[in-house]
Structure formats: C-alpha cells, structure tokens
Amino acid sequence: MEFGDDIEQTPKGKFHCKLCDVNVPNKASLEDHLKGRKHQKLSSVRDTRRAQETKSVFVSGFMRETSQLQLADYFQQFGPVAEVIMDKEKGVYAFVEFSETKGLQSALSHPHHSLEGQKLRVKPRERKEFRYIPKKKQDPKNSLLSLEDLSQELCQAASVNEQMQRVVESFQLSESEKKVRALLVELLQEVFTEFFPECQIVPFGSSVNTFDIHCCDLDLFLDLENTKTFQARAKSCSEQQTGECHSEDARSEDSILSDIDLSTASPAEVLDLVAAVLRKCVPGVHKVQALSSARLPVVKFSHRELGLQGDITINNRLAVRNTRFLQLCSRLDMRVRPLVYAIRYWAKQKQLAGNPFGGGPLMNNYALTLLVIFFLQNRDPPVVPAVDQLKELACEEEECVIEGWDCTFPSQPIAVPPSRNTEDLCTLLAGFFSFYAQFDFAGSVISLREGRALPITSFLSKDQGEEGEQDKARDPAPKTPRLGPVNVLDPFELSHNVAGNLNERTQKNLRRECEEAAKYCRSLQYQRKSAKGKAWGLVRLFVPCGSSAHGPPGAAERHLVIGIPFRAAVLPDAVRHQLHSAGDLFRQLWFEKVSHAVVTVFRDVLKCSVEPAGSPRKAGHTGQSSGKDAGLLGCCSSSSGLAGKIAFAVGQTAITGGDGDENRKSIHEENNNCDVDTSLSESGKEHRPLNSDQGGVKRALPSGDDMTMSPSSKKQRLDSSDKSATACWHCLLWHRVWAARRKVRRDLLKSLPAASRPEGGSVELETQVTECIAQEQPTAEKLLEFSLEAEVLGGTENTQTVLKFTPGDDQAGLFQDFFHFLESFLPKMTEKLLEKLE
Ligand code: UTP
C-alpha cells in the first residue's frame, strides 16, 4: 500500500489512519497528517513498545509483597535488565524487559525459575496490537459518557424506567468527586476566613441541588454578612480608642478589611478583592476573572489539579434558598431526579439549554428544571405541590424572607404528604413533551408559586406599585418580570423571569422539539425494548439536533413565512392597558395593530403598492400609495370589523358583571378608527362572515379570579371560543430595495447635517433610504409581485402574527433575495411602528 499499513482508503475515496483513528479527506491532507506531530509521536511510541515486547518476558507466581527490585535482581543472571513493570493493583504479574534480546532468550531457555521459594512462571510477552486510546475515553468514571457509550448502556436496560435510572447513574457525581469538591470548599473557607473574618462559603446550584453531573461547575456564595458585623464592631472598638479593646476584632487591622469598608463598598470592589485572594492565596487556582457587570456579579476561576471550574458570587442568598427548594422537590418524590436528568440531557442534545445565568438565547439549567417541576405540579393528581401549598406546610421556624421575597417551605420532605400520583417515569417523560408541545408560551406566565399558568394579560399593565407587599425602599429593583417569548417566574423572586433571555427562535425550537419528542413517545420504539438490538426508548430521544434524518415537519414550506411575535415589552403603556382590558380578545386587537404596521412598512417604507387581495389590481406604477390604498388594507371578510366584536364581548362581560364601562368605551372607540378589517374564524382556517347577530364572540371576558387558569382549562376554553383573525393583500414591488441598502444608508447619513439626521434604524431613516434607492432606479415596470396572507395564531399556539408570502411570476429569480432581506427587516420595522402607537 502506497502509504503503509496504517492507512486504508474508504469507499468514498477518503483515507483513514488506523493508528491515530482519524479520517482525512484527500492525499494532500494525508501527507500532512503523516508528517504531523500526532502521527509521528504515536509511531515512535509504537516502535518503542514493539521493541520492548521483543525483549520482555511475562512473569507470574511470585508473592504479593515481592518488589520490582527483587525481580530485577533475580533476572540479572540472564542479562542486563532494563525495566520491570509490575501489575500494581493486584501484584500478580510483571513484565521484565532486558536490555538485549540475548537476555530474553537465555531466560526463556532456563527450565525452572524460583524466587524466595516460590516457583515463577516465565513466558514470552504476548504481542498486542498497538491501539491509540484518546484521552477522553481513558477515564470514563469522572467524565461525561460519550453518546455512543451511553446509548449502548441504555439499550441494554429492560424498560424506559430503567433507562432513566441508568442516565442518573451514568452522570451523577461519584462519591470521590463529591469529596474533592467538599475539600476545595473547605480550603476556600479556610483561606477566605483569613481575609474576611467570619465569612461563609456556601455551595449552591448543581453541585448540591441533587442534579449534579460529572464536570458540573462549583457555584459558591460568599456570605459576608457576619464579616460586615465583625468589621462594624472592630471599627467602633477602635473609635473608642481605649487602647484596651481585647476583642479578637482587633485582628482586622492586619486583615484585608483595613482596605475596604464592606458596608459601603460596591460589588465590583468586593469582587476585585475576592479575585485577588483567589489568585494569590489559593493553591492550584488559575484563570481568575471578575465579571462585575453581569446580572449577578461573579468571579470565575478554575482549579488546575482538580479540573474544576467555579463561580463565586456575593449577593446571591436567593440562589442558596432556591437550591434548597430543588433539593426538597427531589426528595419529595423519587421520580423527580431521573426525570430532570433525562430532560436536561435531552435539552442539551437538542441545543435548547446550556447557558449559565442566562448569558445567551438558550435556557439555563435552572429554568429548565423549573419547567419540569411546573409540569409535575400540573399532573392530575400532582406529583409535587405548588410553592404556596408548601408554604402552608412549613412550621414557624422555617419561615424565611430574603430581600423581601417569601421563601418559606418545609425543610424536610416528611412535612409534605406523599403524592397520590402513580404514573411511571416513562409516562411522565412523554407527558412532559406533550404538555409543552401544546403550551401557550406567548400567552402565559408560568407560576410555580401558584402551580398554574397565569394569563399574560394580567402582567401587561402591572406597574411597580402593584406589588404592594414588597419593601420598595430597600429593594428598588423592578417588581414586574421582563416578559418575553417564554415566561417562567422564579418561585421566590417573583419579579424575575428565569427564561427572560430566551428569544423567539429558542422558544420555537423548544416547542418543535417537544412536538417531535411527544410524537416519538407515542410510538412503540419508545415504549418497548427492541428485540433486534436497535435503538429504542431514550436513545432515540437523545439524538443530537441536526443529526436526525428528517427535519421538522413542514420545514419545506416554512421558508416563506415570517412571524411577528407578540412582545408586550415593546408596546407603549396605553396600548398594553388596552390589550389588557380586551382579555382573551387581545390577540385580535393586537393583530389589527400589527397588520396596520406591516402594511405601513410595505407601503410607506418600501414604497410598494398594497391592495387587498381579490380587489382589481391597479395597472401602472403608483409609486406612493394613495389615501385609498391606506383604506384598502386587505381582508377576507365583508362583515363588521373586530371593533364590533370586542365591543360585543365586552358588553357580554357587563351582563356577567365583568370589566368596567371605561375600558369598553375606549376599546370600541379605538377600534372604530382601525383601518384593518379582520374576520374571525372558528378554526382559524375557515373564514366565516361574522357579526354580533350571527353568533360572533359570545363568551364573556373572564373576570376576577377567572383571569387565571391552568393550562388544561385554558386550552379547553380557547378551543371552544378563541378566534383567529386573518387578512390578505396583493403587493407590487418597484425597486430593488434590498440591494446595497447598507451603503445607501451610510452615504445618506454622511450627507445629512447632524441635526437633521434621523435616528439609526428608525422608520424615517429607512423610508429615506428607499427613496434614495428609488431615485437611482427609476422604473415603470414592476419588479416583483407577491401576495401576503396574515393570520394571528394564539390559544394553544404562540401568539404571533404569521405572514405567508406567495411570489407571483418571478422569472428573474429575485424573490428569494427580497424575502431574505424581509426576514430581518420586516419584524424590526413593524416593531418600530408598534413602539410608536398612540
Ligand atoms: P444553573 O442554571 O447553572 O443550574 O444555575 P445548575 O443546576 O447549577 O446546572 P449546571 O451548573 O448548569 O449544571 C445555578 C444556580 O444558580 C441559581 C440557582 O440556584 C441555580 O441552581 N439561579 C440560576 C438563579 O437563582 N436564578 C437564575 O435565573 C439562574
């Protein structure tokens, strides 16, 4: 073979190096590989090993306590001995390597060998094929199993329940790993006490919340409360200047505390000191980094020998408490732990989770764990009680308030009656996926406190004053959560949306992965072990995203769809109030506003002609749309608009004793001014003329307590009465508005005097950019035509306006470029217009 025995050619014409276990795509890369360090090193190790084998004998039969030296002495008689390698663990065999092959031959030809009265067995050393074992596979005990190894392990289990237990066993920290962590905590405690007398280092997060995995980081809270008191005492003592202060506190003179006043120091100053102590005084610690501007200021560090990464925070008492809460949940029911492990691993494989402290658009493990617990609170009967119920079961000594938030729950599981739920793990896991596949993320706020989903409308108009119980003077942080595509309230810090960092895409991915998993869980492959040794149960669920053969259903059609998500945060207060008052009908009302904004973007910003679909098209280039265009915002219905329906629904509420007249009036008036007609259809697909006489919206708005509902009750209600709104238009595009847009924008900004420059990214600026483009590309010919259908999806779907594009004749193949541009431009501009609504 041209490249030697190590190299084999694959059927696809690539090369595989057996020695290094790597594939290389072509000859040139192969030559580089063969000259490379790895290959050269392994070849030389193999040569040495082979040479050793030809000069070594295998020896057994000696006593356990026999030393290498004794063996070397004995075999010296046959020739110089280079090395003796003992099987250390068992002490039952050894390899004796001679410096020359002569020694080996002489030893083998000797009929009997004995040492200290023991008969030795001596034979040629077996020649084994040299195999390279990559480092990560060398010690599977303390590192995460590869998916391949895990899959093999899981396939052997007898049931999904057993598979889930095996996931826990494969990932959880071993006793020795836990011991190492405890020792590091002890060491840190010792060192930090030197500098911050009476401080406490408290671990929280995955090392201690019972959801630990190999290599998980070590989250630590440095509690300086006692140190502050200590410092205050020491200060007052020195102020007395009696010279007779015998208190231990006098030590503070020499400690780091003489450099800093903890009662007034900023978190950044304290963190800098913590970082300095870590860097200079804790053996083995390196890569120390203070991140003072993070949501939770933190010092990150690594420990070289222990191979651990750690975080130290200083203002994180709530995290220590919520860690205790997770521990309690885990101890309340044996099913919690395996379920959380399986779902965490699934979410990691699907790239849904993995950001600690919400540092990106993926979910952090804490938020994901809360999703699991919320699901368990919503089983029938529940597996875990709501936090409010747990609070009732706590005794007086367990009462706990941190930063104004009630964090009371029992410390021991014995205080909580066992769950009556008897579902097995296999059913619960499948249930988790179906639950979130159907969950109304955009319309709800997940509350573990109450154990149910709260309608998002009840948060839209809340301002800081409504959380009356909280001590505002002490904690000026906002008391309302930052709403987003996924809203999961922290069970204690009720103003914190732990999933607030998720974006629309992550939410969609979460839902889609849940849908796919739920579908798979209904198949026999999930429920039954394969008799033919095929992947089954959890194994298929753990296939990483991107590697499954089939994409998500409908992927092919999705590429001409743009979604405008409902984002309460961008809306002006008045609009939020209005939506809030509309109750369940907020979707339709919001849809009207979005549709109007979308049409404005096409018509005014991109200078398209926009007409309602179905109406006769204008022949020529209209350039600017007429006032008539504005009134022609498309629709599929000839019936009265949404305004009437909302007014009707609000009227019904009055009969049932619901919302006040004020709100009704303002909605009615507002909607009479809307220029979008929307039709309401029962299913969202079938368009049906509708007015109040013809059985329009009959359901009264929920009132009072009825505003909150569990996901299941909400689903039922929405199925029977929630409506979808649709609208469609026909559009003509006259200019290549996407081409060189950035350059035109830059030139435009340069040419304008600073005082009259529109704000970057504003509707005004983008309108002017299009005008510049239009001037440079005068045309009387339409460039593209397309139809646009808009539909609001709500209820069990995400609340969003979905815009479907259907291109007309596009021989020049321009539509894809235009669409690609719209994908980011349209949602941004629409949002800008919504922000400015009055
Ligand atoms: P993580 O999300 O890192 O969870 O948050 P984890 O269980 O430690 O998982 P790993 O480390 O990713 O394997 C760590 C801790 O930080 C607190 C919680 O106490 C959590 O256990 N935390 C996190 C919050 O209090 N709020 C948050 O929004 C996020």
UniProtKB/TrEMBL annotation:
Basic and acidic residues bias spans: 661-671
InterPro entries named in the record: Matrin/U1-like-C_Znf_C2H2, MTPAP-like_central, NT_sf, Nucleotide-bd_a/b_plait_sf, PAP_assoc, RBD_domain_sf, RRM_dom, Star-PAP_RRM
Domain (RRM): residue spans on this chain: 55-127
Coiled-coil annotated spans: none
Enzyme category, top tier: transferase
Bias (Polar residues): 673-682
Family designation: Belongs to the DNA polymerase type-B-like family.
Entry protein name: Speckle targeted PIP5K1A-regulated poly(A) polymerase
